[in-house]
Amino acid sequence: MTQWFIAKYMPDLQRREPRNVGVVLFFGDRMLSRFLGEDPLDPGKIDGRSIRHKVGSPTNYRDWVHFWRVAAASGPEQIIARRPADNYYLERAGQQLAGGATDPEALLSRLFSQLVADADEPEEETEERRSDPVVQLFDSVAATLPFTQNYVVDLKYDEHIFDYAVKAGRSTLLFRHVVLNGNPKKTWDAVHTAAFSTREVAEAAHQLTDHPEPYVIVAKRDAGCEAPKQLRALEHKVGDRLREAAVPQEDRAWLMALVAAKAAIYNPA
Asked: Mean pLDDT in the chain?
């Protein structure tokens, strides 16, 4: 089984706003990792100047990177069980139960780019994510409906990454998060990519052991005049697998009802 963990740094334990600083990947019997400020060609060598404003004390950060690598050598369970409570911690982030990528280095690079590289993004972009109704939806159900982020579906001839995955009995509900904004090219690319992934996985679902049920869930942010057309395009391509998130209470009710319905189908009484 392939699984990965996110290394996080929480500057303020009261505000509880962690920052992703690294990825630890277990690929079969191999363990690979990459951390913020680290030289990819010289693992373990960290540029303290480049991370000073991101992790507080570079010395403490280096110690934690060393600790995680040592703990990870004993297996994935050890890096969770052995971590002391502190500003630094590791969190499960995703897994592939079967199949998966054949190049662990490429998978590690992709995960690091997706999960950690945005640590340098401007504060206004962080605030935009917090106000995103899709992010709010999954944050609001995290305590009662655990989910996995960046879930990889391996179709042998292709791979598709979904932003969120939720177990529903023996089925796995998958969600591609699309933001309709004022950038036409970026938005249309996101629309077409999400629609393609959703249709591909839906058509191959009967061949996969996790019984995937893919969906597209849309948020608007300064959507622009093309948003209605983009929504129609998604509806045309994915049908009732589309949800436009807007009202938190209604979105939560929809998600909980969907999980219950799919669980009943795959785990009949």
From this structure: 81
